[in-house]
Each structure stands twice: as structure tokens, then as C-alpha cells.
Design goal:
Structural class: mainly beta
Mean pLDDT: 81
Low-confidence stretches: none
Helix content: under 10%
Distance between the termini: 42 Å
Strand order of the largest sheet: 1-2
Number of helices: 0
Number of domains: 1
Length: 124
């Protein structure tokens, strides 16, 4: 059996903050239609992300002096890489076949003893 999949995926990540302190959210979307046999894997999409940030900290005023300011400031570089892979494996859920039950059904409560009801016998 095969399944036709209509896939719509959305990936959101915090990308940083703006100058006014409001967070910046990076948004990626993906839409596709594919046909896959039951139990097989389908690689739908891949996402690679790279970000780089540079931070300068130091003593106010002294860090801005040309040449001499390097003694009073610290520069930090950060690089972040990320990879995301969207993989699907469909499983068809089928209704049980109609027919007589083959296993006995246990009924009762804790205060009453349990009895076995024969599912093949006609209802009383």
C-alpha cells in the first residue's frame, strides 16, 4: 500500500535581538507532495543554518581610542551552525476486521469476582 502525503512544515528559531530589544525570529516554511509506500522513509527537506555574532565590550571612552583602545576592550566572535532534517515514515492504521472475537473478555470490578464472558455465545 502507498500513501500520498501533503506536507507543510514550519521552522522558527530565535535569530537574535534588534536594537530596541525586540527578539528577531527567523521563519522557514516548506511545502511538498510525495507518494511513499507504507513503512518506507521519505526525506522531505533539509535546512542548514549558520550565524555569526561579534561582541565588543570595554571601558567606555577608553575603548574607542585609536590603537590604544585595544588594551581596554575585548572582542568576542561566536559562530553557530545548525542542521535540521525532516524525515517521515507513514504507517497506515487499519480498522480491525469484523468477526467473532477469539479471546475471552474479562469483566467485573474489584468488589465482585471476575467472570469470563464467552464472546461467541449469544447475548442473554
Amino acid at each position: 500500500d502507498a500513501v500520498t502525503l501533503e506536507v507543510e512544515a514550519e521552522y522558527k528559531v530565535l535569530a537574535g535581538t534588534a536594537l530596541n530589544g525586540i527578539p528577531v525570529i527567523a521563519n522557514r516554511t516548506f511545502q511538498a507532495v510525495t507518494r511513499v509506500k507504507e513503512g518506507q522513509w521519505a526525506i522531505m527537506s533539509g535546512l542548514m543554518r549558520a550565524s555569526e555574532a561579534r561582541t565588543i565590550t570595554g571601558l567606555w571612552g577608553l575603548a574607542d581610542i585609536p590603537y590604544l583602545g585595544a588594551l581596554f576592550r575585548k572582542t568576542t566572535k561566536e559562530r553557530e551552525d545548525g542542521r535540521t532534517l525532516l524525515v517521515l515514515k507513514p504507517t497506515i492504521v487499519r480498522k480491525p476486521t469484523a468477526g467473532p472475537l477469539t479471546d475471552p473478555v474479562w469483566v467485573g470490578t474489584e468488589t465482585r469476582p471476575l467472570t469470563i464472558v464467552d464472546p461467541d455465545s449469544p447475548p442473554a
